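Hey team,

Filing this mostly as a record. A colleague (T.K.) asked me to run one chain through the structure pipeline before their review meeting, and I want the input and output archived in the tracker in case anyone asks later how it was produced. No errors, nothing strange. Just documentation.

Input sequence:
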Amino acid sequence: MNKVNSITILVPLYNEAAVLPELISRLQVLIDHTKIGINVLFVDDGSSDHTASILMEKTTGQEKFSAIFLSRNFGHSMALTAGLAHINDASDAVFIIDGDLQDPPELLPQFLEKMEEGFDVVYGVRTNRKEGFFKKACYKIYYRLLKRFSNITMPLDAGDFSILSKRVVQHLNSLPEESRYLRGLRSWVGFRQTGLKYHRESRKGGGKTKYSLRSLFRLAFNGIFNFSEFPIRFIGVLGFVTIFISLLYLAITIYKKLVFGTVPEGFTALIFAIVLLSGVQLLSLGIIGEYILRIFFQVKQRPLYIVKSKVINGKEINE
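Output structure:
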């Protein structure tokens, strides 16, 4: 049984000025009506709207609300990484929610109930999505492919909406990866984990997703290349299949020559073979390149993010 006496709510933000006042209001209600101690840590990921100014105004002088301001937009995963690294050691758990209110903070009591049953990680499982058909289909295919080919147990339809025990947070903070797919790292850490089904709200205020199609593909690539050997092993399988097809075609050609005295005419077969092999080689180079690129980024050892300023316990601190 995991007894939780204090918790930090971690909220990454990027251009959420339209919903931030409502978010803070709902979090304040949650703080006032929950018996355990709650602190809120916002991470502004280099927003270009008024998110930072609203956040500064709302958190200065408020001991329950703290904020970290990154020097630029480092991405959602890095904002979460920065937040986890700044969690107060006094917190028994961390509750991660998105700043667009699609993940309702009012579900905290249900997450706590699950955690107190002895789970170190409780992740939200989406029972529905408000995106269009194409995007929903892409998500569905991606999660199932990742579950099928990854070398860890990845829950289906689970995002970053979750509650993590103190020891899980400590282990996540100790991992040195530059390419951080936190949903995968959360599963890799292990311990007892379970899901909690919930209804994912539509985006507030008619706002649009901060993830472009390119960003979503990058996120998918991180998940697949960071937690699966399938792409690199696929090259070997593809090579064997190509050799087998080539030898089979050669055997058929020799057979026709010996039995019927004929051979394929023209350059069609030759061009087909060249194009096929060129495609296989380019695909193989691309997959190998992805792994080399990740090694390159890792060995540079640049900081994962840069903090511009903070508001901690109501007091502004400049880095």
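Quick notes for T.K.: The beta strands are 6-13, 37-44, 65-70, 93-96, 121-126, 158-165, 193-198, 307-312, 315-318. The longest strand covers residues 6-13.
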